[in-house]
Amino acid sequence: MSHHILDAKRLLCPMPVIRTQNKVKQLSPGDILDVICTDPGVTSDIPAWCRITGHRFIDVKSDADEIVIRIEIRSRD
Questions:
Q1: Helices (H) and strands (E) in the chain — how many of each?
Q2: Which residues are the active-site residues?
Q3: Domains of the chain from N-terminus onward
Q4: Which of 13, 17, 33, 59 is the most exposed place for a label (fewest CB within 10 A)?
Q5: Which among 11, 56, 2, 77 has a CA at the least distance from the CA of 38?
């Protein structure tokens, strides 16, 4: 298991999801990905993408400047 970070700050929908999807293709099952964003829409977009693709949404943390969404990469059967 490896931990990865994707900087998607200052990107607007749908780019954070597209960048997340592209990054996940490079990762292995069990890896953890933190997606750092500024677009508040990602708090619903990325969890929905996880449900569709089978990856595990772990949590979301936010402060005044950024949103961090953590996901676990699952098998791509």
A1: 2, 4
A2: 13
A3: 3-72 (3.30.110.40)
A4: 59
A5: 11
- Name the pLDDT band for 75 (thresholds 50, 70, 90): confident
Whether the Cβ atoms of residue 6 and residue 37 lie closer than 8 Å to each other? no
3-class DSSP state of 32: strand
Q: Which two tokens stand for residue 76?
A: 């791509």
Q: 2 and 48 in contact (C-beta within 8 Å)?
A: no
Each residue's pLDDT tens digit, 42-71: 999 999 999 999 999 999 999 989 999 999
Q: Is the predicted pLDDT of residue 77 greater than 80, yes or no? A: no
